[in-house]
């Protein structure tokens, strides 16, 4: 399969700045266990183009052309590297800025953060489900399967893995495969593998070797998962969306603000220690405040989706060319 043209000339510098801003949102929430950056990408209308762009850049022919300077002109003009670079810069910016603020908030005000993100993911699930052109019985079955998978992952107990380089490689592979799926949090997978704190420490202390090995695993996982999702979205679009909606719905278990806490230890991140969801007390003002925050998260996402829908309509011809065609 040769890379499909991404028609970069149809995007202005303002469009690319907007892509950086959208990537910033993806990177910010990706660092929070229980929230998926893929959910944000799907909500903002970037998901299918992002998957297809990653798939085209991971093609063997493109990799071969990278080592042939004479063919760089074709790669420069015909591959979606500008789109991917803009989104990647935003993701990195979000991961290294607001993500730290969110981590602090999760330690000191966890219920507030969970309530906001519960509304966020709930609204995203509703909105994305509307993109399935016609719901059928087997689509509902796929929705339930996705929900059960995400629900089980959200309630799984964290494992303990060594700080060996092979563990960083496998963690990078697993986390990126989860991160690219709406409703499955890459950070949560790191928590379940017992690698969240190790990776966070490697980032803050600039430990090059573990991060490089982690990155290699992520690149391999990203390439393989993008190829799989591209094929599924092209051949079974509505069925795939139904399954992804189920993943998002099931992940709400992790985001329920009312939990029974086993213990709180800041050095291992307080949100790792929660064990069971519980029902809130409706006699407390705090309960209604948290429900209000859920509503705020829901409304904000609904508003963002309307903005994204307006922008995607303006460039629908571009996306159509990118996403259509055979292998």
UniProtKB/TrEMBL annotation:
Q: Which InterPro entries match?
A: VCA0040-like
Q: Does the keyword Ribosomal protein apply?
A: no
Q: Which residues form the signal peptide?
A: none
Q: Which UniProt keywords apply?
A: Membrane, Transmembrane, Transmembrane helix
Q: Which Pfam families does the record associate with it? A: VCA0040-like (PF04018)
Report TM segments.
Answer: 20-47, 83-102, 108-128, 140-159, 165-193, 205-226, 287-304
This one is known as DUF368 domain-containing protein
- State the species of origin: Thermanaerothrix solaris
């Amino acid at each position: 399969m040769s890379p499909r043209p991404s028609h970069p000339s149809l995007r202005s510098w303002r469009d690319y700045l907007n892509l950086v801003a959208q990537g910033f949102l993806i990177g910010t929430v990706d660092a929070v266990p229980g929230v998926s950056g893929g959910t944000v990408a799907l909500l903002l209308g970037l998901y299918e183009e992002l998957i297809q762009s990653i798939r085209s850049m991971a093609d063997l022919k493109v990799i071969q052309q990278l080592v042939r300077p004479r063919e760089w002109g074709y790669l420069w003009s015909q591959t979606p590297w500008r789109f991917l670079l803009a989104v990647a810069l935003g993701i990195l910016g979000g991961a290294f800025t607001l993500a730290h603020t969110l981590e602090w908030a999760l330690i000191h005000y966890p219920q507030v953060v969970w309530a906001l993100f519960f509304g966020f993911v709930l609204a995203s699930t509703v909105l994305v489900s509307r993109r399935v052109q016609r719901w059928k019985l087997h689509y509902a079955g796929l929705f339930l399967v996705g929900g059960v998978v995400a629900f089980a992952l959200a309630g799984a107990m964290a494992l303990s893995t060594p700080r060996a380089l092979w563990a960083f490689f496998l963690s990078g592979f697993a986390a990126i495969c989860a991160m690219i799926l709406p409703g499955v949090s890459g950070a949560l997978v790191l928590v379940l593998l017992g690698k969240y704190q190790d990776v966070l420490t490697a980032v803050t202390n600039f430990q090059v070797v573990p991060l490089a090995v982690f990155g290699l695993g992520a690149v391999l996982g990203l390439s393989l998962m993008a190829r799989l999702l591209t094929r599924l979205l092209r051949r079974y679009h509505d069925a795939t969306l139904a399954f992804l909606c189920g993943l998002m719905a099931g992940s709400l278990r992790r985001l329920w603000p009312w939990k029974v806490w086993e213990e709180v230890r800041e050095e291992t991140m307080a949100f790792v220690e929660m064990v069971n969801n519980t029902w809130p007390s409706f006699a407390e003002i705090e309960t209604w405040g948290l429900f209000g925050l859920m509503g705020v998260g829901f409304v904000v996402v609904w508003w963002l989706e309307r903005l994204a829908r307006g922008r995607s309509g303006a460039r629908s011809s571009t996306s159509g060319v990118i996403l259509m065609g055979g292998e």
